[in-house]
Amino acid sequence: MATVDQKAVEKDWNARGFSCGLWIDPPGREWRDFVHEADELVMLVEGEEEFTMNGQTHRLEIGQELLIPARTHHTARNVGRSTSKWLYGYKRT
Q1: Contact call for residues 53 and 73 (beta carbons, < 8 A)
Q2: What is the pLDDT of residues 24-55, one digit of tens each?
Q3: Is the pTM of this model over 0.90?
Q4: Pairwise CA distance, residues 35 & 44, whole Å
Q5: Is 69 helix (H, G, I), strand (E, B) or coil?
Q6: Strand 65-68 vs strand 40-46: parallel, antiparallel, or unpaired?
Q7: From CA 36, how far away is CA 80, in angstroms rounded?
Q8: Residues with Cβ < 8 Å from 82, sequence gap 6 or more?
Q9: Smallest Cα–Cα separation from 55: which of 74, 68, 34?
Q10: Residues 28, 29, 34, 38: is their CA dihedral positive or negative?
């Protein structure tokens, strides 16, 4: 099983101008139709999480990074039977 070095990701994202935090969702949790004013990066650390934007659903693999452009409506959902953990970061302006 793949693992994510969160400190390394945080260092990389900071160097690219993004913050980095950890989000934890219980099974079935859904965050529907969010919009942010800044670009957002997400990366799955543990569990099963999918992100939908612009009519496309992205089911991330552990360690896979996804860019959500600024002002894009998006939804995140834990589609697994266990807790999911994912990193998120916003582009600093």
Answers
A1: yes
A2: 999 999 999 999 999 999 999 999 999 999 99
A3: yes
A4: 19
A5: coil
A6: antiparallel
A7: 25
A8: 27, 47, 48
A9: 74
A10: negative
